Q: What sequence folds into this?
């Protein structure tokens, strides 16, 4: 166990006291496997010093000393095993993607809410690219609950569909889409969404992936009056509701605490898929 001590305090008796400003602590993990299907994408498996139990959609803060700490949603987080799907988009994710087996990283959490798996028995899961990790955990848990699961899974190419075999294991049917046509149906993941909804008639739709893709899924679900949840990505800095960096507007909801999972009704009336706050706090367009 590694406690996060955030500050020092010089007491009246001139002794230095540690002030604990935050209760979270780090669990150490040793990298057991780094599977890189592509240069910029890695499936990492850590053996943790102690158990962290996450529900699907929750995130952990993953820290590499000297580099940085980033939020990631695990695909497996149980029995001291942590599996992460990481895409190299910047400084810290690059270090994680290229981490050598036997190296250590540190994790705190889990944080945030999670997908509601008790809303029905027929689930349509829609996963795009590296957003697939929490949806895979949902698929696994739903199969344990004997729910009927249909999955639509899309990526740029066959190599990007890194969890295809796993989704096949936990779903009654998987519709695979690749943008370059190298596997399954050619096109984006939302291409035939309406047709799949009309033939499968799901009670619940869960989605993760690029925000514009999720916006389409949410709009289609709302139009079809089907309960929907999406896990959104915002700039998470404090992970404890203090800095406001991850705000969903105009409701003022915080992705780090109130989310990252929100219902379609909340998202459809928000800036989801339109704008978000950048690292500096400026409102920027989502492309
Ligand atoms: C709840 C949640 C779950 C996530 N799960 C995954 C996952 O399973 N796999 C995965 O590859 N990525 C995931 N991400 C995104 C991941 O956190 C960012 O890609 C990462 O923080 C980028 O940091 P960097 O230092 O590598 O890049 P930077 O150079 O700091 O930034 C590169 C890009 O990442 C975005 N970004 C930067 N910092 C953050 C931050 N703290 N939070 C969110 N976005 C940020 C920036 O807008 C920028 O476009 C998740 C994000 C959130 C909020
Ligand atoms: S990350 Fe600081 S309030 Fe959400």
A:
């Amino acid at each position: 166990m590694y406690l996060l001590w955030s500050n020092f305090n010089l007491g009246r008796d001139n002794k230095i006291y540690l002030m604990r400003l935050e209760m979270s602590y780090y669990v150490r993990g040793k990298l057991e496997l780094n599977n890189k299907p592509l240069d910029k994408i890695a499936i990492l498996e850590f053996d943790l010093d102690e158990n962290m139990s996450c529900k699907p959609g929750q995130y952990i803060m993953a820290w590499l000393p000297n580099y940085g700490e980033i939020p990631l949603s695990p695909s497996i987080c149980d029995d001291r095993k942590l599996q992460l799907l990481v895409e190299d988009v910047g400084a810290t994710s690059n270090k994680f993607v290229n981490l050598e087996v036997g190296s250590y990283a540190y994790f705190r959490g889990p944080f945030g809410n999670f997908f509601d798996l008790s809303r029905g028995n027929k689930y349509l899961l829609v996963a795009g690219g590296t957003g697939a990790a929490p949806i895979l955990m949902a698929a696994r848990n739903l199969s344990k609950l004997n729910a009927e699961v249909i999955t639509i899974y899309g990526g740029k190419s066959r190599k990007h569909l890194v969890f295809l075999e796993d989704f096949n294991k936990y779903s009654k049917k998987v519709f695979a889409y690749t943008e370059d046509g190298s596997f399954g149906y050619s096109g984006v993941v939302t291409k035939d969404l309406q047709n799949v909804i009309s033939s499968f008639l799901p009670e619940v739709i869960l989605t993760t992936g690029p925000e514009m893709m999720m916006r389409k899924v949410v709009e289609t679900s709302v139009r079809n009056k089907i309960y929907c949840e999406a896990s959104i990505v915002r700039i998470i800095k404090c992970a404890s509701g203090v800095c406001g960096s991850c705000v969903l507007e105009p409701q003022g909801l915080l992705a780090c605490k109130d989310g990252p999972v929100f219902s379609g009704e909340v998202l459809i009336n928000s800036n989801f898929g339109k704008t978000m706050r950048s690292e500096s706090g400026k409102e920027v367009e989502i492309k």
Remarks:
- Residues 2-111 form a domain with the Elongation Factor Tu (Ef-tu); domain 3 fold (CATH 2.40.30.10).
- The chain is about 20% helix and 35% strand.
